[in-house]
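> @MW can you paste both from yesterday?
MW: sure, first one:
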Amino acid sequence: MIRVILTDIEGTTSSISFVHDVLFPYASEHLPMYIRDNYRIMPAVAEQLARVAEASGTDPKDIDGLIEVLQGWMSEDRKDGALKALQGMVWEQGYRSGELKGHLYRDAADYLQRWHDRGLRLFVYSSGSVKAQKLIFGHSNEGDFTGFFSGYFDTEVGGKKDAQSYHNILAELGVHAGTVLFLSDVEAELEAAEAAGLKTAWLVRDGELPETGRFVARDFAEVDALLRKR
């Protein structure tokens, strides 16, 4: 029986276009000024810049150089922890000012609440930082959904296409793999989760449905139908 739902964000609970057409451009536009305004007064910003300097070989005192590195990483969609942390800080500023509003599919909002109310434990696993995850769900177009989740995971537990990452999550949750359903729109992530023993559902919201032996759903209503069968 499924007792835990672990969900991806981009393409699963939220549209891919929101991340790529709203969040990333916002960070690219506002990150330089945010860093220049805060690196002397916010230890958290200075700490992440030190990580960027170490990873890139850039002089840690060269703020313009570090900003250039970060802009390059953003254009590459690099999954770097320091970059994700700094993006999260910029997005937090945008969410709190009202410039940003997180996107949540209506069906996702509906069934996340239903599953929570039925006693299922809900967790998020995304390549975005935990801070960024909480911001999307805390300032969404459907309201504040952070209260429905029991926890969040990012790439600190490992890459999403690596089976060991899901073993790490299971160890932290302390549950049997067969009681966890992982939702994602990326087949390679589902394969990694299945290698760790998790059940999976492939969200394909647009386009033709793939020919596959795994469970495929158009939306969370179809995922719920699977849950009821189990």
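MW: second:
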Amino acid sequence: MTPRELIDVADVPGGPPLRLFRRGGDFMIVLERNELMSTRMHGSEVALGTMACDRLAGRPAAHLLIGGYGMGFTLRAVLGRLGADARVTVVELVPGIIAWARGPRAAVTDGCLDDPRVTVEMGDVAATIGRATATFDAILLDVDNGPDGLTRPANNGLYGNQGLADARKALRPGGVLAVWSASSDPAFARQLQRAGFAVETVRVRARENGKGAMHVIWFATKR
């Protein structure tokens, strides 16, 4: 088996560092002992982007917010579905993630960060959401392994009552909050409903070929 090679380490504000590994042609981002994402298994990240766009019903000049660039699979999926008049704001907390995308992972990034429809903001996506009022047609969150602050405790606020109220306020009428998770959480689905969303729970495979672990995406539409 090809050994895994450590490429770089990136600091996470308020949390443990992330490590970028390469094995052959594949990349992995690891938090402590948890493999958060890899180029081998990205089907559900793609689905987060394509399914969110499908639920926007062809809105003109759509404005999407993506929380967490990750490996960029969600961003590229969104750009492939949206028209030239769309806007995508990507908020990334960890500078090293963007540095990796433009450096050792540039071939995987495939220029998506330089698309004229894309704006990259460095910072906390919760702060961006909290400042917004009826700004976004969709908010896509993939900053943890689910609705809890795995990467850093401060992320818990995104999934609590205030965080969901902020997300609802930041969405335009009929806008969609999409949250990716590695596993099911019925209590979170109920919390989304109490926060004023119509909730759809979708299960998708980790790999684009329909194999791998089953992941969950909640699509919560502002009522």
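> thanks! The longest helix spans residues 43-54.
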